[in-house]
What we know:
Blueprint lengths: L9 H4 L9 H6 L2 H15 L5 H14 L1 H10 L17 H22 L18 E4 L7 E7 L3 E8 L5 E10 L2 E7 L7 E9 L2 E10 L1
Antiparallel strand pairs: 1-2, 2-5, 3-4, 3-6, 6-7
Helix pairs in contact: 4-6
Amino acid sequence: DLTTGWQYNFNNVCNFSTSIPFWWEKLLQDPGYANGLRCRWDELRQGPLKTTTINNFIDSVANYIQEGRIRNFQRWPIIGVYINWNGFVGNTYQEDVDYLKNYMEQRSLWMDANIPGNCNLATPEVEFEAEYHRAWPNPFTDNVNIGFSLFNSGGVAVQIIDLSGRVIKTIDVGFKSGGAHAINLQNLNLGTGNYLYNISVDSEVLYSGKLVKM
Length: 214
């Protein structure tokens, strides 16, 4: 029922027989892994793991099972009754739902403040949100920015591809070190429509995304 702490330290707070895999903590000591974890967490917190999104999902499920949960608690009358390993015992179903929402929010806020790693994807030219890659503005008219994060150095290239899979244009970005980068693509001479882009490092595709030309 704690909203603080990490699972790899579970044995420090609970006398439990299950062994915690040693590599969980070891992975977090690797800067590349920790930075990737931080980026992924920040990205998800802007969407599916945003507090309002989680609360809306909980409400939608509670509404969906409204009739079923009445039959459930008629068969098993455990509202207000402690059952192992309850961290909270609500006197009503709504109290349990509210507790779940509050737990998820407090846990997420603690993780926001304590997940290791650094995901500063700001560049001197532009700033973009904490994601592995992003294109903006999108849709675009004349030119488009593409931002991407590298955890290793290498030769970077960007390909623009039509929906039939034909490569329209290849832009050689050059050698880039690990970190965050943003480039501005101009004079693409694309017709109105949808396109794909690939970001490759040393000829290996690292990221893919969608572009919309207005």
